[in-house]
Structures are given as C-alpha cells and as structure tokens.
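Hi there,

I know you've been waiting on this one. I reran it after we fixed the sequence typo, so this is the corrected version. Both the input and the resulting structure follow.
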Amino acid sequence: MMSLFGENIQFLNPEFFLLLLVLPAAAVWYLSRRRRHYPTMRMPSLASVKGLRSWRGYLRVALPILRVLAFVALVVAMARPQEVLKEEEVDAEGIDIVMAIDLSSSMLAQDFKPDRLEVSKRVAAQFIDKRPYDRIGLAVFAGEAFTKCPLTTEHQMLKNFLAELSCGILEDGTAIGMGLATAVGHLEKSEAKSKVVILLTDGVNNAGYINPAMAAQIAQKLGIKVYTIGVGSTGDALTPVNRRSDGRYIFGLARVKIDEALLQEIASMTNGAYFRATSAESLERIYSQIDQLEKTKVEVTVFKHYSEAFHPFVFWAILLLLLEALLRYTLLRTIP
C-alpha cells in the first residue's frame, strides 16, 4: 500500500494513478482539435473587439477543467483510498526512579560549563525524556533535604521543577545521608517491581543527622537499588569559597573532594553502581549507562482498522460531470 494525503490515508490500488499520465496527451489532442474546429480569423486590428469577451466565453474555458477534475477524482476513487485507524495497547512494566541531586554551593564550581549544577540538570532532563513509561521523582539536598517532586509520569512538570533548581535555597552543606534517606523514603510504599535511586553529589558528607550507611541499609532492606554519581574534575576547580552580604558567591580555586569510598559503599550495598563524572560528556555517558542497565519492559500491540474513503471522490466526479454536461448543453450550447 502507498501512503498519500497524510499518514492516515492509504491506497489499496495505487497503480491506477498511472492513468493520470493520459492527461498530457489528452491536452495536446484537445488543443489541436480546437484549432481545427474553431479556425482563426485574421483581422488588421483587434481594437474594435477588445474587451468584448462575454460571461459565456469565460464559462466555456471551465468546461475542460471540470472534465479533468472529474477524471482525476475517478482515478483517485479507483485507487481505493482507505482511512487507517490505529489503536495502541501499551503494556508497560515501569520502574520507579527518584533522582537525588546535590544543591550545595560547590555545585556552582566552574570545572563544568557553565557549572556543575546546570550540566547536571540538563543531562537529567535528557534522561527523563528517554523514560516515558517510568514514574520519576526528584529529591534535593544540601545541609538538609526535601522532596521537590513526587513520583509522576507527568514528565514535563517534573522537568519544570528540575529547571527551577538553584543553589542557596537550602542551608549549605552536603547531607548525603539525608538526601538518600529522603529518596528512599519516597520509594518505600512503591509497588513497582524495580525501584531505583540516582544520587548525584560533588562532595563529602558533612551535615545532616542521618548516617549515609544507615540510609543505604534501609534502601537495601527495601530492595532499592542506588546508583551514585560523583561530579567534579580532578585537581583544583574554581569554586564558591565565600558569600557576600548581598548573596553573591566569591569564587576561588579549591581542591575537588568527593568521598568516592562512601559512594562506592552505598552502591555496593544496594546492588547498584558508582560512577565518576569528570566532564559533561562523561556525565551524559553515565546516564546512558544507567538507562541501559534499567530497561523498562514495554509491549505495544497495534490494531489497525480500515475504512473505505473512495465514496466522496466518486460523488465529486459525478457532480463535476453533471455540471459540465449541464453547462455544455444548456447555457453554452453551440450550433454545429
């Protein structure tokens, strides 16, 4: 079948469109016949008859056009246009995922361009787009933690919350234990067969009242897999070292410190994995790896229904032929 006139219209017998090749030959024959039937009259000047063409003359020009349109409509009808109605039945075994993102001031470090936080937000949004059937939530932490967005399949809303994230909205610090506990707590009542936390941080646990190892133990008992990501280059990076009274950060070179041993331990305890992102490109690869590791089972069954759509073309062909005949033998009738 051939798809024309839009995705929902297909033709069962498209070979009939070859009949349209007859039109150029018919046009040549019609013009040659018209010249023989209506000989031209040579006159020294046409000034006297200029502008004397009547409405019957204009209508006569429409006669062959009406016949051509009728022919085209009949050809389309013979090609059997059919409207294709599709129904999709999606059986998806989704995964519940909570992303826990560090909002401590060090996430403004400029070893990533423009900074670690903006790159993390962009790559996380790309990850969300790849998982249309999963419920995804968002938790944030610095010196404290809270749930920014509950588990949802409304991913545009989730990405709007993600785009709003900024450093300074929470007490500064890096409470990895509280960030993980918040994410795990949100998955506690989840009935999904697979539950995942993606914890992203660039520092060392130095705040909060929940021990990261304890939060990891709770995740382990609940069957929640934790993927940990350490974000930051090696060596020194231009990082906020102080803050002015007006809220603006003062930047200076500081050593990049990430507690990789802790992040590896959390991942190992929960059957997850630890990744180190030293650039925007490596962070993108990490999210792609997680996407491949946590595949959602999706079965899509497509049902197609066909509805004949040639009737309007037959109707218009008959109507155009009747109109052409009516004009030819009444208003535009000629005497041989």
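Quick highlight: The CA atoms of residues 302 and 325 lie 47 Å apart.

Best,
R. S.
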